[in-house]
Amino acid sequence: MNYWLVKSEPFVYSFQDLVREGKSVWEGVRNYQARNNLRAMQLGDPVLFYHSNEGLEIVGIAKVIQEHYPDPTAEKGDWSVVDLAPVKPFQKPVSLQTIKGHPDLQEIGLVRNGRLSVMPLSEAAFRLLLQLGETEL
To answer: Would you say the pTM of this structure is higher than 0.90?
Structure first.
């Protein structure tokens, strides 16, 4: 099993939108590293959902319900999507400030490469973020 974090601006697509819809195609990724991360996602992998730009916090857990396939929104190029479904919201959102201030989270992509929209997490970092969010998987 792999662990992931995806970012979305809540005014574009929020965790609440995912909950309301029940599932979503994670489309529009146009960064090769993020695309490769999408391609590495496996069925059932847990995914933390981060609100970027507004909020700047991890707000929920999703899971991969369909492994990668061609992005239907791509007019050219070799881009991929996955399908995600909501699992549960965090009991307590975990802010970027909290994440950056925690010594055991300094190596995660959100701290090291904040622009990347799809990033892997170690199991230890994933579990720590759940703990900080007072949430169990």
So the answer is: yes
Retrieve residue 25's tokens. 């195609």
Position 110, amino acid: L
Q: How far is CA 21 from CA 30, 56, 64, 120, in A?
A: 23, 22, 15, 25
Query: Can you name the residues that pair with 97 across neighbouring β-strands?
Result: none
Dihedrals phi, psi of 14, to nearest 5 degrees = -105, 170
Asked whether 26 and 38 are in contact (CB, 8 A), the reply is yes
CA distance 136 to 88: 9
Average pLDDT over residues 28-42: 97
- Give the integer Cα–Cα distance in Å for 6 and 4: 7
Q: Write the pLDDT tens digit of every residue in 67-122.
A: 999 999 999 999 999 999 999 999 999 999 999 999 999 999 999 988 899 999 99
